[in-house]
Amino acid sequence: MPAYQYPDSHVFYRKLTRRYPLITRGEGCWLIDEQGKRYLDGSGGAFVANLGHGICEIGQAMADQAAKIAYINGTAFTNEAVEALADELAPLLPAELDKFYFLGSGSEAVEAALKLARQYWVETGKPSKHKVIALSPAYHGNTLLALSASAREHYKTYYREWLVDIHRIPAPYSYRCECGGVATAACPVCDGSGLDAAIQQLGAENVAAFIVEPVGGSSTGHAVPRPDYFRRVREICDRNQVLLVADEVLVGAGRTGTWSAIEQYGVVPDIMTFGKGITGGYAPLSAVVASRKLLDPIARGSGGLLHAQTFSHHPVLAAAGLAAVRYIKQHGLVARCRVMGQVFHQKLEPLRALPFVGDIRGRGLLAGIEFVQDKGSRAPFPRKLKFAETFSEQALAAGLMTWANMGQADGINGDLSCLAPPFVITESEIDELVRRFTMALHQTTTKLHLG
Ligand code: PLP
Q1: In terms of domains, do 268 and 386 share one?
Q2: Ligand 1 centre distance from Cα of residue 443 (Å)
Q3: pLDDT per residue as tens digits for the range 145-155
Q4: pLDDT category, 1, cuts 50, 70, 90?
Q5: Ligand 1 in contact with 139 (CB < 6 A)?
Q6: How many domains does the chain have?
Q7: How confident is the model over 296-333, as pLDDT tens digits?
Q8: Which residues of 152-188 are buried (b: 16+ CB within 10 A; e: fewer)?
Q9: Pocket mutation for ligand 1, best pick of 47, 48, 110 (most atoms within 8 Å of C-beta)
Q10: Helix or strand (DSSP H, E) at 238
Q11: Which domain, by its residues, includes 367?
Q12: Ligand 1 proximity of 277 Cβ (cutoff 6 Å)
């Protein structure tokens, strides 16, 4: 049997030192490798497989579309699939956010969203507005502008010279905030008011946009901002003429129990990005969503967005998106995510009693489990122990796919395991997830000699 490991395989993946199981098929929440071993997809891969594996009609819709057209370029033509997809998505968002620009990855969408924000200000006579404010911890992608906007320092190690300066303010991450996460505390980090000071420091006339994940992504282990956070942020952005960019690449498309995560805050951003789960993983598709308020001045001015990619608005990718969004609607999967999200969090709750589990948080079918060396002081493990990475390998050995994230405690230390199962997960599968998680934690502590 071939070993799928560098350098024996002609494929290379990010990790050059590990052996890769070969997955041959998927069914619902399960992935099955060539040996027949079954993995419960507890994180939907990288927060992507929202609908479950093996939905033939999505593949069929892509095949049907591919049989009609190979490719058309968005400078000359539009296509049925992309028009229908935008029509299908528009009613899911606030009325004014009804213009969609489709790309492939989340990073591409973030790059395009920030360029759109910048172009808007140039074309409306405020060319000094170019600075972007982002949170820390936060993640917005791996291409150079998106990476610049991300507070993921180890990803930047070799590329700092190529990155642009993005102003950073602390993310609302109450588990490690001085305010202790008290919902009524006048805390500039958790109540959002700190954004105002940052804008004043940079000069409002220089600030183009504030980019934020409406519920924390993997970098905070899904910390949920306070109910008043986005109301305050919206008011500060309006007062200072700063565009609010909601990066919904990870938390959008139903994952937190509503189509967009920010709608639970009663706030409408100026620009949104979607990606990952928008096709349930059947094809790489992302979207930038904007309103006529932003696009009309550009239409009247230069006449076009100064951002082009060969494969934008691709008909086959749009057909995947269309089939996936229709599937979500037909099967009521966003509502299911909301209901099962509550069951999920109830069933995760007992994990708090396990050694080294410091916190469990999240919303909907999205949960972050933070591991700590000392539960009382919340002290993280030293990075060199690689607790989170060891845990995710032990989880895979136990037949559970999870997502590890590191560094959230202080930029270097911090160990998280993130869970984001498909929206079709059943109660008994959640029980199985918890059982395998517990087993993997036990194996991890044994392997790391933590007693
Ligand atoms: N934005 C957020 C919030 C993300 O979580 C990610 C990826 O994890 C991205 C953007 C980048 O998406 P992609 O990896 O598809 O480029």
Answers
A1: no
A2: 30
A3: 999 999 988 89
A4: low
A5: yes
A6: 2
A7: 999 999 999 999 999 999 999 999 999 999 999 999 99
A8: beeeeeeeeeeeeebbbbbbbbbbbbebebeeebebb
A9: 110
A10: helix 229-240
A11: 23-54+332-447
A12: no
Domain boundary residue, one of 272, 302, 330: 330
Residue 163 shares a structural domain with residue 285: yes
**295/435 same-domain check:** no
Pocket test for ligand 1, best of 47, 50, 139, 262 (most atoms within 8 A of CB): 139
> Is the CB–ligand 1 distance for residue 366 below 6 Å?
no
In this structure, the residue with its CA closest to atom 2 of ligand 1 is 140
Q: Indicate if 164 and 257 belong to the same structural domain.
A: yes
For 96, residues 6+ apart whose C-beta sits below 8 A from its C-beta are: 268, 291, 292, 293
Q: Is the CB of 140 under 6 A from ligand 1?
A: yes
CATH code, domain carrying 48 = 3.90.1150.10
Domain C-terminal end among 309, 330, 351: 330
Contact residues for 351 (Cβ-Cβ < 8 A; gap 6+): 357, 360, 369, 434, 437, 438
Percentage, residues of the chain above pLDDT 90: 97
Closest CA to 244 of 268, 224, 260, 227: 268
Instruction: Tell whether 2 is covered by a domain.
Output: no
425 CB less than 6 Å from ligand 1? no
pTM, entire model: 0.98
Q: What's the rounded mean pLDDT across residues 262-287?
A: 98
Q: Is 110 in the pocket of ligand 1 (CB under 6 A)?
A: yes
